[in-house]
Specification:
The protein is of the alpha/beta class. It contains seven helices and eight strands. The protein has helices spanning 18-29, 45-58, 70-82, 95-98, 119-128, 151-157, 176-186, and strands at residues 4-8, 36-37, 63-68, 86-89, 104-107, 114-117, 138-143, 162-166.
């Protein structure tokens, strides 16, 4: 039974994101690279959740989940369903609302593949929303300069949770290199 971290990337992203690679490198340096799961998530919310749940259900041992942006939304759903610790990095608190403006053709930032994001996908996100969170399970990391999502929504949604609120930055969470060790520690690796 070995502990692990399931890292969930954001919308139009992939396991090749700089945060995913930095986390992998940090775990590699600790001899824990095999403890990281970082799947390429489908743009279809129900499929992305099914992929993540399959990893959770077959992992033997304690597992924590970390997610960035839309991955933070998914991490919240999984944390509540499976009683997992979760680290949320500039999470999409109101994913069905914030992603409505991306309806239509989108292109993955890393693979450059195009896909259609539809009203059905927004409806799937809406069906996944969690009414309440369990504060003891979460570490929230946000930067006030996030140009995509209003960090104040995350601070309010995760009130009572451990929070790291940093001035400046942007949606990518520019100060991640300084906080990756705290993520790993919170996930109990």
């Amino acid at each position: 039974m070995s502990p692990g971290i399931l890292y969930l990337h954001g919308f139009c992203s992939s396991p090749q994101s700089w945060k995913a690679r930095l986390l992998a490198d940090a775990l590699e340096a600790r001899g824990l690279r095999e403890q990281l799961y970082c799947p390429f998530l489908s743009h279809v919310p129900n499929e992305a959740m099914a992929e993540a749940e399959a990893i959770i259900e077959r992992h033997d041992g304690p597992l924590a989940v970390a997610g960035s942006s839309l991955g933070g939304f998914y991490a919240t759903c999984l944390s509540e369903k499976y009683a997992l610790r979760a680290v949320l990095i500039n999470p999409a608190v109101r994913a069905p609302i914030s992603l409505q403006k991306y309806l239509g053709t989108q292109t993955n930032l890393h693979t450059h593949e195009s896909f259609e994001f539809t009203v059905e996908h927004v409806a799937q996100l809406r069906a996944l929303e969690v009414a309440q969170v369990t504060p003891s399970r979460y570490l929230l990391m946000v930067e006030t300069g996030d140009e995509v999502l209003d960090y104040r929504q995350a601070v309010a949604r995760y009130a009572g949770c451990r929070q790291i609120v940093l001035p400046g930055g942007d949606h990518s969470f520019t100060q991640f290199p300084e906080y990756v060790a705290q993520l790993i520690e919170f996930c109990r690796l």
